[in-house]
Amino acid sequence: MKFTPAEIIQVLRRRAGLNQSELGAKAFAVSVEAGRTRIKNIELGKQVPTYEDLRKIAPVLGVDIAALLSEGAGPTNPAGVSANGQELLLDSKVADLFPGLGEYLGILNKAVMLDDGELVAHSCRRIIDLLRSETTAAVRAVNQ
């Protein structure tokens, strides 16, 4: 299974530190609300981006249009994060203790598949920050 342009856009948008509104407004020269709606629909797969859409989005994300096409993207691993050929599965009870952890692990997995060292480092920092900030609450929840 290859990454879709929608998945690639989402990963690169997050890496660029843009929200959906900012990306959409800049790429399509529309209002913030119209931009958010358009990017949201693309990322959710409700709207397939045209070549023209990708041509407008690419420079805002600071990439060549080829980076948004799915041909070069590697396989995904939706069941877990691959580590040395083995899967690391996270129980939903653990994920529930750390709101947002599953999302960051998904981004980390995609970053590894895209061979994007900067995004891997960024995702790891965010995961570490999340774990640090939520650890005390998680320990309390487990002990109750």
How would you briefly describe this protein structure?
With 144 residues, the protein is mostly helical.
Q: What this model shows, in words?
A:
The protein is built from 7 helices and 2 strands; from the N terminus they run ααααββααα. α2 crosses α3 and α6 (101-113) packs antiparallel against α7. The chain has helices spanning 5-15, 20-28, 32-43, 51-61, 92-97, 101-113, 117-143; strands at 81-83, 86-88. β1 (81-83) and β2 form a beta hairpin. The protein folds into 2 domains: 5-72, lambda repressor-like DNA-binding domains (434 Repressor (Amino-terminal Domain)), CATH 1.10.260; 87-143. The chain is elongated and about 55 Å long. Strands 1-2 form a two-stranded antiparallel ribbon. It is mainly alpha-helical and 144 residues long. The relative contact order is 0.13.
Give the overall shape: elongated
CATH superfamily of the largest domain: lambda repressor-like DNA-binding domains
CATH fold category name of the largest domain: 434 Repressor (Amino-terminal Domain)
Biggest beta sheet attributes: 2 strands, antiparallel
The helix-and-strand class reads: mainly alpha
Q: Portion of residues in helices?
A: 55-70%
Order of helices and strands: HHHHEEHHH
Total helices: the number is 7
- How many distinct beta strands? 2
How confident overall, as mean pLDDT? 79
Under CATH at level 1, the class of the largest domain stands as: Mainly Alpha
Task: Report Rg.
Answer: 17 Å
Low-confidence stretches: 71-86
Order of strands across the biggest sheet? 1-2
